[in-house]
Amino acid sequence: MAEVEVFWHEHAVSREEKERLNGNKGCVLWFTGLSGSGKSTIANVVDHKLHELGKRSFVLDGDNVRHNLNASPKILAEKHSEEFAKRFGLGFSAQDREENIRRIGAVARLFAESGAIAITAFISPYRADRDSVRAMNPGDFYEIYVSTPIEVCEKRDPKGLYKKARAGEIKGFTGVDDPYEPPISPELTLDSSTLTADELGDEVVFFLKQKGII
Questions:
Q1: pLDDT of the residue at 82
Q2: Domain enclosing residue 29, as ranges
Q3: Active-site residue numbers?
Q4: Residue 42 pLDDT > 60
């Protein structure tokens, strides 16, 4: 089958007009860190604080996205054929994780172009994958490294994943038998072992004010 040519269509309402209506600039806040570091909690606190300020934001959470857009073959097989699930489902191999992050980067870009603050919370363990999202969102991408030590993350273990990984029940778990590559020059670094999620949320809001985003 011949490839269909695809064209980019300019929007009738400009991004600048949408941003004026929203009262904030569009951007991507990319929270990265180990499982249990506090990424999702802080991301949702920031979302709540922005909502209280009358700003437009939306949280793209790793677990939530894995239930729909980037569902695993097992989840897709419950609603579609085995062949469909095998072709389009995403597991947790390095290749699947790369595609998971690529898709989220593309979705986050659409949110930013709509004048919203896209808040993402993904382990996203590989620098190359995060850098590719940065390149996809030039001028809009802010990497926020939740640097909570693994000892603290493992002690929390809210989903029991570290315990399963240590017992060999989960293979390729980030921080245990799969690497996490911390950011080299993140725009912001947070540590939830020293401050509360609310305090860290205030840091992020202050950062957005400094950058002129809100």
A1: 85
A2: 23-210
A3: 124
A4: yes
